[in-house]
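Field reference: sequence -> structure
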Amino acid sequence: RSSKSVAEMGADEGGDEDFGVGGDAAAMYDRQIRLWGVSAQQRLSQTVIALVGDASALLLQEVAKNVVLAGIRELVLVEPTVAAQQRHAAACGTPCRGFLGSNASQVKQALNSINPLVQVRLCASSDRDAVDGSRGGGEDGDAGDGEDGVEKADVVCVVSSVLDEAYAGLARRCRARGGAFYIGATYGMLAAFAADFGARTFSEESTVFSARKDGGESSPKKRRVEVTVESAPYPSLLGFNDWSSARVHRRSKCGLFVFQALESFAAKYGRLPCAMKHGEEDAELFVKHANKLAVEMKLSEERVPRALLDTAAQTAASGVPSVAAVLGGVLARELLKHAMRTQPAIAGVFYFDAHSSRGVVEHVGA
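Structure field:
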């Protein structure tokens, strides 16, 4: 461990005395500053993140806890409309309840105790914005309207069905003003999120070997290089329906199709499949529905991800705490990447299969 003070580390990174992390903040974040540097922590301390969704859900609470511990400037918790919550219940099944509280006020209090240096605000969606739950009016003098919350957040994360057309407008607005948009959910033993942040430049550490003049063995040196990552617009992901397209890589696992099938099944039957709750007939019904959808979307028989379909058919409507914890950790890390810019963010759709303990990134859309 380095014996340097935070101020000395800031000077080493080319900053001046007023580098934005001092006093209580320097003591609170000492360990992570030594991990990712003063500059990254300074950018975190200027970042506003908005989380849209049921505050009692474990997935939302995991994301909130992780970003608050990291030391962002402000977290805005946006309660969705009643209509949005009903839509989420049909498309995402039974959510796992979190450990920070059963309502937004309790969650806010818990987050404040975890890190009092981060401002946590509540924002309730208004009826006029039920289509995407993106703007809101304050309650009890604590929450501002959408212009002070979601609309000015650097990163917006929605806990809802990963393919939810109601949030297409919010994704467009985030992209238009240079913000990042994320949306994710768990489906039993499966979980996924989609990212939309346009083109963004990140800096990552790279090891280079420079040749020595005397011909001796070269020594490795570390330096930072810029990497530009571009994601497809979220609305184009929603409209993707041709798996024979050249936009689909021949090595693609086609895992996104499973979530398309789940969304289509929920739209038709008003719920997700779950053989654990409704019997094996329900699994057969879902597989039959998915097979028909595969034909419509021009997904060849040999490319249909059967193992993932079977997993979804068995558990999609149930809540699995460990899966929510895994996705919450991965999703929070992606949100923080946009603030620190020290590692390239995932572009596209990420999904996690608890049966195989594997995470996969899918690139589709325009």
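Note: The chain has 14 helices and eleven strands.
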